[in-house]
Amino acid sequence: MLNSTIQLYKKAYSGLSRNSWYLSFVMLVNRSGTMVIPFMTIYCTQQLHFTIVQAGIIMAMFGAGSVAGAFMGGRITDRYGFYDVQLGALLSGGSLFILLGLQQSFAGVCVVSFILSMCNDAFRPANSTAIAHYSSEENRTRSYSLNRLAVNLGWACGGALGGFLASVNYHLLFWVDGCTNIFSALLLLRLMPRSVYKQPIVAKVKSKIISSSASAYQDSTYLVFTGLVILFATCFFQLFTMQPVFYKLQWHFNEQFIGFLMALNGLLIVAIEMVLVHKLEGRRPGLFYISWGVLLTGLGFMALNVLPPSGWSALFVVGFITIGEIMSMPFMNAFWISRTNGQNTGQYAGLYSMAWSVAQIIAPTLGSQAIYWGGYNLLWWTLGGVCLAATIGFNLLQKQLSRKTILAT
Asked: What is the pTM of this model?
């Protein structure tokens, strides 16, 4: 039994390129310092004494900057290549995290949050394009899962450390987050020297193209997919915006336990995602798994209205939402890359990143307004309903694509 389990893990991790591992290591270091965003809402309300609505506006500014950064990052990546965009985003983002920690006024926090997010999130489409470049069609979903593993392992470390630092001094969060960004840029320079990085993107991707559009913005199927991703991501982001506040104010958990819950999300992903994706990939259409993942996420949020306030209930919710995340996100990445033609990878990556950025704007706004008008109960029921609508949408999209495939043959 133990030997078969070891072999299963070996198969899940085998066949990935060295540069995919390097990219994931850089991401691991970068995300190990991710601790500002998860605690930003609590920091704004508890330390800066802003209202919950003001905290929602600040988180929306992060989202607005993210939209701008994802759009520019995608365009610049297609034009100049993914290497320089990643490097510039890491260096500028690191400096701006430190600057954000020095802001005390509402206006100052809003402005720096926007600029920080714009610079920092230009990294995402460039990084996604790099993963596509260094992977093959056979291992692409696993390559993205490896990157997500690094993100979530780093998130687990950052969440746990962030909870400890927040209990000591919130300003330490900004310094650690900024310094890890800068250190990640130095690692990128050391591990992956700047070399041929643009032309191979055009020449390498020769997989079957589902889309006939030259531009991601003219691909109607992909635009529908992007809209559904926004619905899901708007719900998912509550895990890092309003749910920590709920745990603090309603269930009266301390920062260290909240940090542990965030770390647990990442640790579960590290433990099972690669193996699960390895077992599921290719057996059914990706949209099938996405639909189930989105549904499970919605059920996880609704459980907060049903379960008694306790640590065990919080652990159950984290586990349920994490399974939903594992079922959906790796296959979302595989879907968008399947529609590229090699010359527009940055556009598709940018639009996918923009979907999450738009959700980053909507999530705190929806969350804070739902709490203001109907309390947390209204928020959790609303998230369940939105996830159900997205699930239906992904199912309909899969049926439409299946009909197109049948007609094409």
From this structure: 0.73
Measured CA to CA, the distance from residue 18 to residue 286 in angstroms comes to: 26
Considering the domain architecture, whether residues 235 and 157 belong to the same structural domain is answered as no
Give per-residue pLDDT as tens, 189-201.
888 766 554 444 4
> Structurally, how many domains does the chain consist of?
2
DSSP code per residue over 213-264: -SSGGG-HHHHHHHHHHHHHHHHHGGGTTHHHHHHHHTS---HHHHHHHHHH
Q: How far apart are CA 305 and CA 310, in angstroms?
A: 12
Same-domain pairing of 222 and 173? no
Final residue belonging to a domain, choices 132, 159, 194: 194
Residue 137: inside a domain: yes
- Domain span at residue 160 reads 17-194
- pLDDT tens readout for residues 324-373: 998 998 889 888 878 877 667 778 888 888 888 788 778 877 888 899 88
What's the chain's length in residues? 409
Indicate the angle between helix axes 255-280 and 140-168, nearest 10 degrees. 170
